[in-house]
């Protein structure tokens, strides 16, 4: 064996050993991970899902939450509908809700589950209507246009998700909730992830998106953000569009998780790098809770 081969082997072993303290730290812990629609379409979905499967096999309890914004819009157009948004929220009449349900629980969710199985893991897909897991109220329309069947999470019943985790499987949760009127409601997936993280007493909330993190007014990446600064950036309009519900979701979970992270889902293995190495990526929000 050449010196180079031995060197390469040692380096490989070293990389694995470096993950040991992180595996020890988070093994047995619940991690809620939201996959953004744009991040999912970025072409490294399998690398991301491989990370999730690996985390599961080293004893962590990852819960995957997904929306499906771009796919829903594309299917709406195919059905002759025009997608419309108010403050980043999809105006959801009953015909739109049918499309949302078909796309999330008939396509996006089952595709993620199938991919996880191809990668050697085991997953079960469910929506907030199953169980029911997520009970929602109709979102307030603050004097503006009625958003229709858009819900805000009111109560979380974690039992269906916990039982999937206890089986050693990965729950894949679609962002749909059950209203008190028995109707299905469309819920922002960032908010679903935050509410699940709180209810499951997760150690981390991780939101994967299609940018490298939250930017300041100059466009520079903010590697850390606290509630006060984040609120100000929202008021100033520096944090806008789809980043608003995401930052709000991170802030919502802060009283309960150790940390919330907004990371770049376009980067291969961003999740693994964030969790199992010293390298912090994206924007971190430090929480107040400790989960030892
Ligand atoms: N201050 C900011 N820093 C970074 N991105 C920002 C900021 N303000 C607005 N954005 C926008 O927010 C977008 C991310 O939110 P978006 O809702 O589009 O994606 P997602 O939530 O990851 O995916 P999906 O909504 O499909 O699940 C970025 O692509 C960027 O254009
Ligand atoms: Mg979004």
Topology summary:
Blueprint: H1 3-18, H2 20-26, E1 30-35, H3 37-40, H4 45-57, E2 61-66, H5 69-78, E3 85-86, E4 89-90, H6 94-118, E5 123-127, E6 134-138, E7 151-156, H7 159-166, E8 170-174, E9 176-179, E10 184-186, H8 189-199, E11 204-209, H9 227-235, H10 243-253, E12 259-264, H11 270-276, E13 283-286
Parallel strand pairs: 1-2, 1-11, 2-8, 5-8, 6-9, 11-12
Antiparallel strand pairs: 3-4, 6-7, 9-10, 12-13
Helix pairs in contact: 5-6, 8-10
This protein binds adenosine-5'-triphosphate and magnesium ion.
The site of magnesium ion has 3 residues, from loops.
Description:
With 292 residues, the chain is α/β, with parallel strands linked by helices. It has a single domain, classed as Acetylglutamate kinase-like (Carbamate kinase, 3-Layer(aba) Sandwich), CATH 3.40.1160. Helix content is 41%, strand content 21%. It has eleven helices and 13 strands. The chain has a seven-stranded mixed sheet, with helices on both faces. Strand 9 and strand 10 form a beta hairpin. Helix 5 crosses helix 6. It is globular. The chain starts with a helix and ends in a 6-residue tail after the last strand. The mean pLDDT is 93. The protein binds adenosine-5'-triphosphate and magnesium ion. Magnesium ion binds next to loops.
């Amino acid at each position: 064996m050449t010196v180079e081969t031995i060197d390469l082997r040692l380096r490989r072993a070293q990389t694995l050993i470096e993950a040991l303290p992180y595996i020890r730290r988070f093994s047995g812990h619940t991690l809620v991970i939201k996959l953004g629609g744009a991040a999912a379409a970025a072409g490294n979905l399998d690398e991301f899902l491989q990370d999730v499967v690996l985390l599961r096999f080293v004893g962590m309890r990852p819960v995957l939450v997904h929306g499906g914004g771009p796919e829903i819009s594309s299917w709406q157009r195919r059905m002759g509908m025009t997608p419309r948004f108010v403050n980043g929220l999809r105006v959801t009449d009953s015909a739109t809700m049918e499309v949302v349900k078909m796309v999330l629980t008939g396509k996006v969710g089952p595709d993620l589950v199938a991919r996880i199985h191809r990668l050697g893991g085991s997953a079960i897909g469910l929506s907030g209507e199953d169980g029911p897991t997520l009970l929602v109220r109709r979102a307030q329309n603050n004097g503006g246009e009625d958003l229709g069947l858009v819900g805000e999470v009111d109560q979380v019943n974690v039992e269906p998700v916990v039982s999937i985790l206890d089986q050693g499987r990965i729950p894949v949760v679609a962002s749909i909730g059950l209203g008190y009127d028995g109707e299905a409601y469309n819920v922002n997936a960032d908010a679903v992830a935050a509410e699940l993280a709180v209810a499951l007493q997760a150690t981390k909330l991780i939101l994967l998106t299609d940018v490298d993190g939250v930017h300041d007014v100059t466009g520079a990446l903010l590697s850390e953000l606290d509630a006060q600064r984040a609120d100000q950036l929202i008021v100033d309009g520096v944090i806008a569009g789809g980043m608003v519900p995401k930052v709000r979701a991170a802030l919502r979970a802060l009283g309960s998780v150790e940390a919330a992270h907004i990371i770049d889902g376009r980067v291969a293995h961003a999740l693994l790098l964030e969790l199992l190495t010293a390298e912090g990526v994206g924007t971190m929000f430090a929480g107040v809770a400790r989960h030892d």
